Amino acid sequence: MVANGNGRILIVSSVSATSPTPFETTYGPSKAFGFSFAESLREELRGTGVTVTALLPGATNTKFHANAGMADTPIGKAMKNDRELVAKQGFDALMNDIDHVVGGDDATKQVVIENRKLTETVKAARHAAIARIGT
Description:
By secondary structure, the chain is α/β, with parallel strands linked by helices.
């Protein structure tokens, strides 16, 4: 892409990138890596014609929670964002050279805003309360 002077890269991260994720202990950090990687790569590629966008969806209507054995947790039972909406938001951000976008409804976007204000300890406890299997 750099040799051709153009291209677009969309990296799917997650709202979980903005908070500790107890009971999804490898998921959240891997999504935080993806978000940081996207922002770093975007800067490295500045001026080359290649853009990078990170998509941070919230809980989305997929089989994710069922496959993770979390269907009966509060987060597994909660309302989910429409996957077509999330995909469109990511695509639109990619095509408009936006560095990152929170995918989903206004409540999902509000979670990210709140996560900027809360301590890591508070965020970890909040996530544990909705992700613990058997709650």
